[in-house]
C-alpha cells in the first residue's frame, strides 16, 4: 500500500498591504525599543545641554506618541488576520487547523524563549499564550466574535480596578516592578549568561506581569479576534467599498483620539485619589492608543491602495513585513548587543537622539538582509522554520 501523502506545506496567498502594515509596525517597534534601550532604561547621567536635551525629549515624546501601544496592536490585529487565512485554507482542503494552530503556538513559544534570552520584555511569549483564544472562537459567528472582541477592547480589567479603587481597595499597576528590578540588576552586571538566564526567568515574569498590569492580556486577544473578522470580511482587499471603509475608520479613529487623549491628560488634575487616577488614566490611555492605531491602519491601507505611496511602502516596509518574525528577533539580538553591558554597553552613554541614529543604522542592516534574502527565497528563515515546524507531525 502506498504511504499516505503528507499534508502540503501550504503558504497563504500574500496580501501586499498586510506586508506593508507589518513592516510599518516593525519599523515602529525598532525605533521605540531603541530609545528605550531595549528595556534597559539606563541613560547618560550628565546633562546633555539645552539643545541636545530638547532634541532628546522631542525624539522620546514623538516616538512614544506615534508608536507606543500602536505598533504592538497592529501586530495583534494581523496575527488574527493570518490565523483566519490559515484556518480557511485548511478548511477548504478538508482539514481542521485548530489543533495544528495550538502546536504552532507551542513552536512560537520556543521562538519567544530564545528571543527572551536577549531581550527582557519581548512579546512572542505573550502572543503564544493569548493566541490560544483564536481556535476557541474560530467557529463562532461574526456577531459573537465581535461582541467578545469589543468586550476585551473596552478594558474590563481597568473598569473593575477603577471601581475597586473608588471603593477604597488598593489597586496598583506596578505589580511587575520587583521582577523588573531583579532583571535590571543582573543585566547591569555585564555577564551574558547570567543576563540570559535572568531574562528567561525574572525578565519573563516581569514582561507578562507588565502585560497584565497594563491591560494587554485582554486587549491583545481582542485585537486578534478583530483581525480575524477583518479577514472574514475581506477588508484588506483592494476595492472601492473597502477603501471607503478604511477611510471612515481612519477619520473615526482620529476624531476619537483627540478628546480621549485630552481627557487622559486631565485625569490626574481632576482626581486626587492616586489609585483611581492611575487606573482610570490607564483605561482611557488604552482607548486613545487604540483610536490612533485605527487611524494609522486605515491611513496605511488608503495610501497603499489609492496613492503613489504604494511603491514607497512596497520598497521600504514590505520586505520587513514579509519577514516580520525574523526581523523582530534580529532587532532584539542587534539591540541587546548594542545597548546592554555584556555587549557594546551604549545604553548608559547615548541619549534618545543618538539612539534614533542607532535605530536607523540597525534598520539599514536588517532591511539590507531582508531585501537580499527575499531575492532568492519566498519567506524569511524563521518564517520558513516556523512553517516547517507547524507541519512537523
Account of the protein in words:
- This protein is mostly helical and 393 residues long.
- The protein has one domain.
- The chain has helices at 16-35, 50-67, 71-92, 98-116, 124-130, 133-137, 142-153, 156-166, 177-187, 192-213, 216-233, 240-270, 274-306, 309-316, 318-322, 324-339, 352-374, 381-390.
Mean pLDDT: 91
pLDDT below 50 for ≥5 consecutive residues: which ranges?
Answer: 1-12
Beta content comes to under 5%
Provide the succession of SSEs: HHHHHHHHHHHHHHHHHH
Q: What is the radius of gyration? A: 21 Å
How does the major sheet shape up? none
What structural category characterises the helix and strand content?
mainly alpha
Q: Assign a percent range to the helix content.
A: over 70%
Number of helices: 18
Number of strands: 0
Number of domains: 1
Taking the alpha carbons of the first and last residues, their distance comes to 21 Å
Shape: globular
Oligomer: single chain
Amino acid at each position: 500500500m502506498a504511504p499516505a501523502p503528507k499534508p502540503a506545506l501550504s503558504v497563504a496567498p500574500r496580501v501586499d498591504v498586510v506586508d506593508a502594515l507589518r513592516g510599518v509596525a516593525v519599523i515602529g517597534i525598532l525605533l521605540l525599543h531603541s530609545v528605550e534601550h531595549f528595556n534597559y532604561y539606563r541613560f547618560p547621567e550628565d546633562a546633555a545641554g539645552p539643545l541636545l536635551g530638547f532634541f532628546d525629549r522631542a525624539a522620546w515624546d514623538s516616538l512614544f506618541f506615534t508608536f507606543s501601544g500602536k505598533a504592538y496592536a497592529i501586530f495583534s490585529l494581523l496575527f488574527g488576520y493570518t490565523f483566519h487565512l490559515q484556518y480557511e485554507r485548511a478548511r477548504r482542503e478538508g482539514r481542521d487547523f485548530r489543533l495544528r494552530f495550538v502546536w504552532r503556538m507551542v513552536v512560537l513559544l520556543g521562538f519567544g524563549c530564545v528571543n527572551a534570552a536577549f531581550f527582557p520584555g519581548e512579546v512572542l511569549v505573550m502572543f503564544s499564550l493569548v493566541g490560544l483564544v483564536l481556535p476557541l472562537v474560530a467557529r463562532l459567528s461574526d456577531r459573537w466574535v465581535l461582541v467578545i472582541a469589543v468586550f476585551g477592547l473596552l478594558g474590563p480589567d481597568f473598569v473593575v480596578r477603577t471601581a475597586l479603587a473608588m471603593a477604597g481597595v488598593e489597586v496598583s499597576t506596578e505589580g511587575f516592578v520587583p521582577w523588573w528590578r531583579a532583571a535590571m540588576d543582573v543585566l547591569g552586571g555585564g555577564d551574558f549568561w547570567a543576563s540570559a538566564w535572568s531574562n528567561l526567568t525574572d525578565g519573563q515574569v516581569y514582561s507578562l506581569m507588565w502585560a497584565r498590569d497594563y491591560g494587554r492580556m485582554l486587549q491583545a486577544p481582542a485585537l486578534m479576534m478583530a483581525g480575524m473578522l477583518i479577514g472574514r470580511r475581506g477588508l484588506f482587499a483592494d476595492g472601492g467599498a473597502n477603501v471607503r471603509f478604511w477611510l471612515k475608520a481612519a477619520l473615526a479613529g482620529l476624531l476619537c483620539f483627540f478628546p480621549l487623549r485630552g481627557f487622559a491628560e486631565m485625569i490626574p488634575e481632576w482626581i486626587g485619589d492616586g489609585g483611581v487616577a492611575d487606573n482610570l488614566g490607564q483605561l482611557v490611555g488604552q482607548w486613545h492608543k487604540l483610536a490612533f492605531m485605527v487611524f494609522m491602519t486605515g491611513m496605511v491601507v488608503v495610501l497603499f491602495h489609492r496613492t503613489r505611496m504604494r511603491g514607497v511602502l512596497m520598497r521600504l516596509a514590505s520586505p520587513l513585513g514579509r519577514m516580520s518574525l525574523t526581523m523582530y528577533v534580529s532587532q532584539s539580538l542587534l539591540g541587546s548587543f548594542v545597548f546592554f553591558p555584556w555587549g557594546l554597553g551604549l545604553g548608559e552613554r547615548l541619549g534618545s537622539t543618538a539612539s534614533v541614529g542607532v535605530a536607523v543604522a540597525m534598520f539599514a542592516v536588517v532591511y539590507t538582509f531582508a531585501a537580499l534574502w527575499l531575492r532568492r527565497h519566498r519567506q524569511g528563515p524563521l518564517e520558513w522554520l516556523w512553517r516547517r515546524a507547524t507541519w512537523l507531525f
